Amino acid sequence: MADADLDVVIRQIAKQQNKALIAAVKKRRDRYIGLANKAKDNASKQRLKQMAKHAMEEGTAAAKRLQMSADNAADSYARAMRRAAETIAAQGTPVIKVKPSKTATKPKAGKKTKT
After folding, report:
1. Whole-number Å distance between alpha carbons of 6 and 57
2. In this model, does residue 115 exceed pLDDT 70?
3. Radius of gyration of the chain (CA)
4. What is the Cα–Cα distance from 97 to 115, expressed in whole angstroms?
5. What's the half-sphere exposure (Cβ side, CA atoms, 13 Å) at 78?
6. Which has the closest alpha carbon to 115: 64, 59, 107?
7. pTM of the prediction?
């Protein structure tokens, strides 16, 4: 991941956080539904089911906001890097090329290379 663009890393981390948040929301919703099933009177059942519904709505809204923020940050970073590269190119300064990592250039163990 050291050679990966940071905008890609930002999006991957946000995706992981989004999945964790949705899992927690579903767990909370299931807890409220379980309590509603155990409730003795109808008013309590309805109240707990409504709480489960609201928990799911609020959780998914939070997950969408988190994803949107991460996308905005990743897009902003990518845009800034493009601008920096354009500025360097306009000044006539040569862009430094990054050498590929040594692990990427090694042949796989099972294959022989011609020498």
Report:
1. 31
2. no
3. 25
4. 27
5. 13
6. 107
7. 0.67
Which tens digit of pLDDT belongs to each residue from 7-59? 889 999 999 999 999 999 999 999 999 999 999 999 999 999 999 999 999 99
Cβ proximity of 5 and 78 under 8 Å: yes
Cβ proximity of 49 and 32 under 8 Å: yes
Task: Give the chain as a 3 state SS string.
Answer: CCCCCHHHHHHHHHHHHHHHHHHHHHHHHHHHHHHHHHCCCHHHHHHHHHHHHHHHHHHHHHHHHHHHHHHHHHHHHHHHHHHHHHHHHHHCCCCCCCCCCHHHHCCCCCCCCCC
Tell me the torsion sign for CA atoms 20, 23, 29, 30: negative
